[in-house]
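Methods — Computational structure assignment.
A single polypeptide chain was analysed. Its primary sequence is given first, followed by the predicted tertiary structure written as structure tokens.
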Amino acid sequence: MIRVLLAEDQGMMRGALALLLGMEEDIEVVAQVGAGDEIVAAALTARPDVALLDIELPGRSGLEAAAELRAECPDCRVLILTTFGRPGYLRRAMEAGAAGFLVKDGPVEELAEAVRRVLRGETVVDPALAAAALGAGPNPLTPREAEALRAATDGATVADIAAALHLSESTVRNYLSAAIGKTGTRNRMEAAREARRQGWL
């Protein structure tokens, strides 16, 4: 049996995925979580063969959890399953050590087969997304610029961001200005929106 951990914040979707995967003769869902900061603890307890992770999760993103899983549970293969097929997300998922990346609108048979394939050591990527990723350039934002943009998304002031990141206000302004320039937008809110759309945040 292939032991699967499922991380999805929408309860109905999580239940439906668990039910559908459970109908497969060789797959057993051994753990289900609704938040990103519950993934590693659940994996250490349940010891899944494959972790099926959404990206947008409360507490911690599936991408952050994927990187931690690689360190804490190296035998567990990670398959990202997301609503948002963005080239930037695919690139970040691969950098975090994910073995696969699928978009949620595919058939469940495809998902079950992807679980089997990543366990065999294959890399599974949604074909349309792979093509888009090849055409997209790399993330132009530095980690600090991305961090400043993330902190700016809730309408925080420069002073708020500087305090949260332990930086000077002038440094924060420089990071935000650079991010606005690189995203080709007019202000930090637009820059954050564009960076999210591209999957860079």
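Note: The chain has a mean pLDDT of 88.
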